[in-house]
């Protein structure tokens, strides 16, 4: 399994672009709309956004050896209490992911990642490239859920196709 630093940089930029669009939308939505249980796995729009933020922080702690979130998976939907705090934390996390990706070389994506998974209650060893692909795939998966919930709430989340992403400045 082979991925490249360019793949990681593209996906980090895509992640940042999509989260920025979500931040702009949720900033103007009533709190009741953001926290309404919409039947998604993490309940609400804010709950799902929080879970995704939590997961990104958890994966980055494994990849860059930085700080991990203090909450557990079960508590992830409550990471940020409101859209404003979520947007602040999301902005910082996206910068962290982007900086990590910009600093990669090919050898940084080879080998095995080993960590203790609290949700599985066991040590896990997986190819590093698989873990990186999972992080980016997980982002896209949950943003798709958020997109559907925002659309159902009468919002227009805008384009999400990777090929539509604006060119880097």
What do these coordinates show?
The protein is 54% helix and 7% strand. It is mostly helical and 169 residues long. The protein has a two-stranded antiparallel ribbon with strand order 1-2. A hairpin with a 4-residue loop joins strand 1 (112-117) and strand 2 (122-127). The mean pLDDT is 95.
Write the topology of this structure.
Blueprint: H1 5-26, H2 31-35, H3 45-64, H4 83-102, E1 112-117, E2 122-127, H5 128-152
Antiparallel strand pairs: 1-2
How many E-type strands? 2
Order of helices and strands: HHHHEEH
Distinct helical segment count: 5
Q: Which percent bin holds the helix content?
A: 40-55%
Structural class: mainly alpha
**Which strand order do you get reading across the main beta sheet?**
1-2
Q: Give the low-pLDDT segments.
A: none
Kindly, what is the distance between the CA atoms of the first and last residues, rounded to a whole number of angstroms? 30 Å
- Quick one: biggest sheet? 2 strands, antiparallel
Radius of gyration: 16 Å
Shape type? globular
Beta-strand percentage range? 5-15%
Summed over residues and divided by their number, the pLDDT gives a mean of 95
Pick out its properties.
169 residues; two-stranded antiparallel sheet; 2 strands; 54% helix; globular; mainly alpha
What is this structure, in a nutshell?
The chain has 169 residues and is mainly alpha-helical. Helix content is 54%, strand content 7%. The chain is globular and about 45 Å long.
